[in-house]
Amino acid sequence: MRAIIVETMVGLLAYGEDGDTVAEEIYPRDPKQIASAMAEHRGGGVSNPLASLVERLVSMGYDAFASPNGALMGSVAERFHVATGALEGPGPEADVAGLAVSHGFIQSEAELGVLSHAVSTALANIDVHRALSSRESLLSPTVQLLGDLDTVINGLSGRMREWYGVHFPELSRRVGEHTDYARIILSIGDRSSITVKGLQEMSLRKRDAERIVEAAQGSLGAALDGDDLAALQGYAQRVLDLYGERDRLTAYVSALAQEVAPNVAYLAGPVLGAKLVDKAGGLRRMAMMPSSTIQVLGAEKAMFRALKSNARPPKHGLLFQHPLVHGAPREKRGSRARALAAKLAIAARADAFSGEFIADALLAQLGET
Questions:
Q1: Which residues of 191-210 are buried (b: 16+ CB within 10 A; e: fewer)?
Q2: Which of 199, 211, 220, 312 could staple 204 via S-S, CB 3.0–4.6 A?
Q3: What pLDDT digit, counting tens, does each position of 225-281 carry?
């Protein structure tokens, strides 16, 4: 015999083949507990009330079950080893108001809206809590923080160069990395103390060190007193501290991206993968995007400008940061970005829906293109 299980705000009802109610399992009168059971069913989980109902039906001789919730029926089949199926329609209609009154949930049918509102609010709270509890929810703010930190560090590093440039203006053209520039200020300070050996100990090449020393000897910059130098070195230390914080945050974002979206992170690189998921608005939204949209993520302004002026659309956005794209000749970057976006679309769907790791195969296919 087959029973059709229908869920209401009051409880679970089981209907026989003739449409009559054969069993019921009423929820507790607490809206939070009702919402908890309904949320569990919505996710395909078997709640205690549902388990109790199925066990009773099995003892009554029912060996097949159906419900509009196909995922839930799959869980029932796995747990109770019975035949199940999903209904195409909503199933038999239940008198929810009458049921709620008869079991004491409300005093009259007019109060059904109050019960419905309480349960809906509790369900919404559960959904918000689950969304915020997801590891993916940590990805977006950390990626955005990393971007803000880069902006701040670049701005502060520029100010540092301007400040020390009053004393040694020629240094800025000879030292490209902000961290190297800050370490020279912190470790050596006054340009008169700069030596080839000291610069080599900071991992600078001998030829570069010799050029810096030569520039220092003929520098046109102003002299610094002790207080000036102390203030500059304190500022340089803060800049280096921020670079250290950026390295720690980058490592955290990379680990989080590999946990949340392992296929995307493997294919794009952890940091770029995290940026793509953030720009897409989440992993699931990225999984639903066509590859052509993924290709231009991060180039929205250029895309809208092209649409407005009938100019050529951008060939890539954030994907330009991938070695496969930025390392390619200019004329091949568009095709490389298109191929990479196609594989990333597949990777995002695997991460969002199946959880299967397929990125190594996708990367091999990408290498063949």
A1: beebebeebeeeebeeebbe
A2: 199
A3: 889 999 999 999 999 999 999 999 999 999 999 999 999 999 999 999 999 999 999
b/e per residue, 104-116, with b = 16+ CB within 10 A?
ebbeeeeebeebb
**Structural domain includes residue 256:** no
In tens, the pLDDT along 175-195 reads 889 999 999 999 888 888 889
What pLDDT, on the 0 to 100 scale, is given for residue 132?
57
Q: Which helix (H) or strand (E) holds 291?
A: helix 291-295
**CB neighbour list of residue 270: distance below 8 Å, 6 or more residues apart:** 253, 254, 255, 257, 258
Rounded-to-integer distance, Cα 118 and Cα 134, Å: 25
Contact 291, 276 (CB under 8 A): no
Geometric angle at alpha carbon 193, from 187 and 195, rounded to 5°: 85
Which regions of the chain are under pLDDT 50?
Answer: none
Query: Which strand ranges, in their side-by-side order, compose the sheet holding 64-67?
Result: 21-26, 11-15, 2-7, 64-67, 83-86
CATH number at residue 318: 1.10.246.90
Q: Where among 133, 163, 191 does a domain terminate?
A: 133
Q: Are residues 8 and 128 in the same domain?
A: yes
Strand partners of residue 26: 11
State the residue range of the domain holding 36.
2-133
CATH number assigned to the domain comprising residue 195: 1.10.287.4070
Q: What is the pLDDT of residue 219?
A: 86
pTM: 0.69
- pLDDT at site 131: 65
- For residue 369, what pLDDT is reported? 60
Please indicate, yes or no, whether residues 128 and 236 belong to a single structural domain of this protein. no
The number of folded domains in the chain is 3
Same domain, 95 and 159: no
Q: Examine residue 279 and state whether it is found in any structural domain, yes or no.
A: yes
Q: What is the CATH number of the domain that holds 29?
A: 3.30.420.220
